[in-house]
């Protein structure tokens, strides 16, 4: 069976070039494309491609956000390959946390891009193990008071994050904080976005690591 691919890039000429390159291969088919994040989020769920090639920087958002959204809402989720013109540690961090399977510079050779599509379609990963290790290390440093992600949370969101780490559901958090369940859901969505996570389980691990590291840091 052929590998279905969706392309997201705000430059039409880039999309055309990638599409022409991929469709020279008998086992790869480009099933759709978009020039904005909004278009991609509208089209990918209907097409359900095996692979989504996503530009990191877009006029109305980021490819990383598209990756996070489709990975959590489309079933089965596409394997996402991030393409960027510049090496960017923050974008790489965000891509890994969003569940991307690969991260390549646009200077990549055509044969390597084709190989990358086949690799991630088969369930493989193109993420450097060292880069993944750095992401995990950043999560472990979650107790750092200067962590801009945590500092961006409101006091209410910080409290809800701790309750998520305790294993409480939205309904239970609402009862604990005297909030409507829908209100809690909105808070959870907001804090996940600020922290760069796609799932509440990731937020729970993050909060648990903060507690553990904070406990180690306390003087005896």
TrEMBL record:
Mark the residues carrying the PTM 4-aspartylphosphate. Answer: 55
**Domain HTH luxR-type, chain residue ranges per copy:** 146-211
Q: What InterPro entries does the record tag this protein with?
A: CheY-like_superfamily (IPR011006), NreC/VraR/RcsB-like_REC (IPR058245), Sig_transdc_resp-reg_receiver (IPR001789), Tscrpt_reg_LuxR_C (IPR000792), WalR-like (IPR039420)
Q: Which intervals hold domain Response regulatory?
A: 4-121
A single BP term in Gene Ontology: regulation of DNA-templated transcription
One short Pfam name that applies is Response_reg
Keywords annotated in UniProt:
DNA-binding, Phosphoprotein, Transcription, Transcription regulation
A single GO molecular-function term is:
DNA binding
Q: Where does the source fall among the domains of life?
A: Bacteria
- What is the protein name given in its UniProt record? Response regulator transcription factor
Origin organism is Pseudonocardia bannensis
């Amino acid at each position: 069976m052929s590998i279905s691919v969706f392309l997201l890039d705000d430059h039409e000429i880039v999309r055309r070039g990638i599409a022409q390159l991929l469709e020279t291969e008998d086992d790869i088919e480009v099933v759709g494309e978009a020039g904005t994040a909004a278009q991609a989020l509208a089209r990918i769920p209907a097409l359900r491609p095996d692979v989504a090639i996503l530009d990191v920087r877009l006029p109305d958002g980021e490819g990383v956000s598209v990756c996070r959204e489709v990975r959590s809402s489309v079933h089965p989720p596409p394997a996402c390959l991030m393409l960027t013109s510049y090496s960017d540690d923050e974008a790489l961090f965000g891509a890994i946390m969003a569940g991307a399977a690969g991260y390549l510079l646009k200077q990549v050779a055509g044969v390597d891009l084709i190989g990358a599509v086949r690799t991630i379609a088969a369930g493989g990963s193109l993420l450097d193990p060292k880069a993944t290790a750095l992401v995990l290390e950043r999560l472990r440093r979650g107790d750092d008071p200067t962590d801009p992600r945590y500092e961006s949370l409101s006091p209410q969101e910080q409290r809800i994050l701790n309750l998520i780490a305790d294993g409480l559901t939205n309904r239970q958090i609402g009862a604990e904080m005297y909030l409507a369940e829908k209100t809690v859901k909105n808070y959870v969505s907001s804090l996940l976005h600020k922290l760069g996570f796609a799932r509440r389980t990731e937020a729970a691990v993050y909060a648990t690591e903060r507690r553990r590291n904070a406990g180690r840091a306390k003087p005896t």
